[in-house]
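Exam revision sheet. Question 4 asks you to relate a sequence to its structure. Input first:
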Amino acid sequence: MNAAIGYVLIALAVLNLVGLLLLFRRLGNATYHREPAAPAAAAPAQAPSEPAVSADALANMLRRLDHRLGDIEDQVKRSPSVAVSTDQGATTDRALALAQRLARQGATPQNIAETCGISLTEAELLHRLHAPR
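Answer key, structure tokens:
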């Protein structure tokens, strides 16, 4: 649950950044002085060289967003990962891979069960499937 909240916060920070960039772009376009429509033969009007928002202000806003995103990432890293509830009989993929390898090497089902922490029935099945003939 905590990891999901962290991902939602990161997504919101990214959306906030995109929204601010769109807002600054719109503000920049809205403040340009546009000439009245000229005849087709006339040269197009050039945009002013100065943006509506200073580069320092944009840099400061992006720096704050970067710090905020870093804080959110740290918060996600510190929060415990979401534990997946498993049954007592369920095993991890790693344990099953080890059990298969042991079965291929000729280990007994009892030895496989004890080494990998799986049930004897699972070990017998893996032994039958993967043991050398």
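Marking note for examiners. The helical segments are 2-31, 55-78, 93-104, 109-116, 120-130.
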